[in-house]
Amino acid sequence: MVSRDLLDRCRRGEQAAFEELVELTHRRVFTLAYRLVGDRHEAEDVAQDAYLRMYRGLPGFRGDSSFETWLYRITANAAVSRLRRRGRFGDILDDPDDAVDVPDEASVDPVDRDEIQRALFALPVAQRTVLVMRDAYGFSIREIAEELGLTEGAVKVRIHRARRRLKDLVYGPAEPHGHEAVREHLPELAEERRRG
Fold first, then answer.
1. Are residues 33 and 54 in the same domain?
2. pLDDT digits (tens, 9 = 90+) for 111-126
3. What is the radius of gyration, based on Cα positions, of the chain?
4. What is the full DSSP assignment across the chain?
5. How far apart (Å, rounded) are the C-alpha atoms in residues 5 and 17?
6. Is 96 in the same domain as 74?
7. Does the CA dihedral 192-70-149-90 come out positive or negative?
8. What's the rounded Cα separation, in Å, for the pair 171 and 105?
9. Which residues 6+ apart lie within 8 Å of 179 measured at CB?
10. In the predicted model, what is the mean pLDDT of residues 72-100?
11. Do 55 and 49 contact (CB within 8 A), yes or no?
């Protein structure tokens, strides 16, 4: 958790404070960026853009939400902007409803977070984006809809489909209760990254 004192020091323009802030939050910012854009090099660019936006916006940050939530929104916005510039934003808007093949190595172990991570990246970009924003980072349906330019109904449908596909990838289509376990692990994956 970022302290108010650290934020105040950053607002006063203390370079060391800003470096400390980046050090404290970089893993979380990079992880969100990577999960949204799906490429490590692009995720680094997104993280850099997010920190530049955060630095410029810090004087106006009023604390209506937590700093971390505010930084996640900036990062998600930077990722979406990058996907738009790269011509990949259509992948987020498109929601193919074709079947996803379940890999042969799909695990039935409900605590295999690595398998969940691999399955997450096997999802179509449109579904992975809304699922990560909702289940791993706690964005509201409204916030996701506004960020992506979708209706709230479309976001809800995509989240439902993404959860179902993720469950099928991890547990196989026959497991009736798998998606609750997968949903439980998404915030844990984000928390693991935060703790570093």
1. yes
2. 456 777 788 888 888 8
3. 17
4. ---HHHHHHHHTT-HHHHHHHHHHHHHHHHHHHHHHH--HHHHHHHHHHHHHHHHHHGGG---SS-HHHHHHHHHHHHHHHHHHHTT-HHHHH-------PPPTT----TT-HHHHHHHHHHS-HHHHHHHIIIIIT---HHHHHHHHT--HHHHHHHHHHHHHHHHHHHH-TT-TTHHHHHHHHHHHHHHHHHH-
5. 9
6. no
7. negative
8. 10
9. 163, 164, 166, 167
10. 64
11. no
Same domain? For 95 and 129 the reply is: yes
**Residues 45-58: pLDDT tens digits?**
999 999 999 999 99
Number of neighbours of residue 126 by Cβ within 10 angstroms: 21
In a shared domain, residues 181 and 93: yes
Indicate yes or no: pTM above 0.90: no
Taking alpha carbons only, the member of 67, 192, 79, 70 closest to residue 128 is 79
Q: Tell me the two tokens of residue 72.
A: 């996640």
* Distance in angstroms (rounded) separating the CA atoms of residues 148 and 154: 11
User: What is the residue whose two structure tokens read 């802030």?
Assistant: 21
Same domain, 78 and 102: no
pLDDT at 180: 57
Whether residue 32 is found in the same domain as residue 75: yes
At 21, the pLDDT band (50, 70, 90 cuts) reads very high
